[in-house]
Design goal:
- The chain is mainly α.
- About 50% of the residues lie in helices and about 5% in strands.
- Helix 1 crosses helix 2 and helix 13 packs across helix 16.
- The longest helix is centred in the middle third of the chain and has 32 residues.
- The strands form two sheets. Strands 1-2-7-4-3 form a five-stranded mixed β-sheet, sandwiched between helices. It has a two-stranded antiparallel sheet with strand order 5-6.
- Bound molecules: protoporphyrin IX containing FE (HEM).
- The site of protoporphyrin IX containing FE has 27 residues, from helix 13 and helix 19.
């Protein structure tokens, strides 16, 4: 099969380069091979053709559930050890569509807005722990906020020993997943050897088992003592029935909960950290956000989420360093002409969100943080796509944007922060 040109280094080396320095790996490929190139990004994504041209992305994402393309979950197999075989991320076709339909409603509209008060309360609690005049890690605080939001909104966990243990175990599991050695284990299945609790895989399995036990205990307790007043996402998933009247099994519930936790926690925490960094790096941005906030009551979460400049700051944050750098893989199911190449059926295609967001002709001076660009023009969903698109577009998109705006406005209105170190912070990756 003839594929677009790309790096000639051995596939395993390409995966290592991608894991070690993903931004420069993508930029180097673009500089050398242009708009689309073939590369190797790990199990079941090898070889994959990477696109960053909005026209090509539109063809892929607007048709990823058609005769020409598919969005198969089997390609996302690297997440299976963490999320499980029933995760929406690993499902395909009708099962994938049905699971999305079940999971989407709480992340939109009134249901989503009903979590506004919770988000505000959690932000205040976490920020109250900061001591005036003493430096602290913003990322740690943002992780604490997004973890609590997920545990309460998704799991409906009340504070107590299970909540505390879940937060601690999940935090440490996800920290472990940001370690290159551990993440390599997901990319290279041959390394999955349980050589005791000190080995990366053994340690991972032990923590995962502990978290699973906590989740299954919570599900069992809910089944025994259902409460009509609950409005969390676990309750909703437990009461959902498919066309045949079947409820989700415990394993399905566990896998979807784990998916929402993993997909929603680190991503939102990272986006919030960058947004607050940019706001405090540029005094003009800070003053403008603050001036905009002055006219709105903090309790009016709908008005806060519609503020144009705050929205532009959040958009620019996710443009310059999109937390998810790539879309999930899509696969051609018939011969397709794309970006000047004839692709045969079965070709894996991936959108590089990062490279699309750095295109000069769409975003002049692309490496500069400039929120105004989002006030000056509208970008198409294929020019600006921090949440992907098509059949696998992020389920938490509206929720994450809502949470970002609420947390930022709450923090800026209650405390005065300053960067300890004025030097620019380089982007580093945490792999999952
Ligand atoms: C700033 C925060 C976030 C960013 C940048 C982000 C980004 C993304 C991206 C790029 C994708 C892949 C889309 C594609 O292939 O077309 C995705 C998928 C997904 N995201 Fe998010 N996400 C964020 C927050 C969240 C939150 C808060 C949740 C839920 C609590 C969530 C749940 C999911 C799920 C379940 C999928 C898989 C959808 C599927 O396979 O059908 N994400 N996200």
């Amino acid at each position: 099969m003839s594929l677009p040109d790309g790096p000639r280094t051995p596939p395993t080396l390409q995966v290592i380069q991608w894991l070690a320095r993903p931004l420069s790996f993508m930029r180097n490929c673009r500089d050398r091979y242009g708009d689309c190139f073939t590369t190797h990004l790990g199990a079941r994504m090898s070889p994959a053709v990477v696109f960053s041209n909005p026209q090509a992305l539109q063809i892929i994402l607007a048709n990823d559930d058609s005769k020409e393309f598919d969005a198969p979950g089997e390609r996302n197999v690297i997440f299976e050890p963490l999320l499980g075989a029933q995760s929406v991320i690993g499902l395909t076709g009708d099962r994938h569509r049905r699971m999305r339909q079940l999971m989407m409603p709480p992340f939109h509209g009134e249901r989503m807005r009903s979590y506004g008060h919770l988000i505000a309360q959690i932000t205040d609690e976490v920020m109250r722990g900061c001591i005036v005049g003493k430096a602290f890690s913003l990322r740690n605080r943002m992780q604490a906020i997004s973890m609590r939001v997920i545990l309460k909104a998704v799991f409906g966990l009340e504070e107590g020993s299970r909540y505390n243990e879940m937060a601690r175990m999940l935090g440490s599991l996800l920290d472990q997943m940001s370690n290159r050695l551990t993440v390599s284990v997901l990319y290279f299945p041959v390394l999955r050897r349980n050589l005791g609790p000190l080995s990366p895989w053994g340690n991972f399995v032990r923590r995962r088992e502990r978290i699973d036990r906590l989740i299954y205990d919570e599900i069992a307790e809910r089944r025994m003592r259902p409460k009509a007043s609950r409005d969390d996402i676990l309750t909703l998933l437990m009461s959902a029935r498919d066309e045949a009247g079947e409820a989700l099994t415990d394993v399905e519930l566990r896998d979807e909960l784990m998916t929402l936790l993993v997909a929603g926690h680190e991503t939102t925490a990272t986006a919030l950290t960058w947004a607050l960094y940019w706001i405090h790096k540029f005094p003009k941005v800070y003053e403008r956000v603050l001036a905009e906030l002055q006219g709105v009551a903090l309790s009016d979460t709908s008005a806060l989420s519609r503020l144009p400049y705050l929205n532009a700051v959040c958009c620019e944050t996710l443009r310059i360093y999109p937390v998810g750098m790539l879309t999930f893989p899509r696969v051609t199911t018939s011969p397709v002409e794309l970006g000047g190449h004839s692709l045969e059926p079965g070709t894996i295609v991936i959108g590089s969100i990062y490279l699309t967001h750095r295109r000069k002709e769409i975003y002049p001076d692309p490496d500069r943080f400039r929120p105004e660009r989002f006030l000056e023009r509208r970008f198409s969903p294929y020019e600006y796509l921090p949440f992907g698109g098509g059949a696998r577009r992020c389920i938490g998109m509206a929720f994450a944007q809502f949470e970002m705006k609420l947390v930022i406005s709450r923090i800026l209105s209650s405390v005065e922060l300053a960067l300890v170190d004025k030097r620019s912070v380089p982007c580093r990756t945490r792999h999952l």
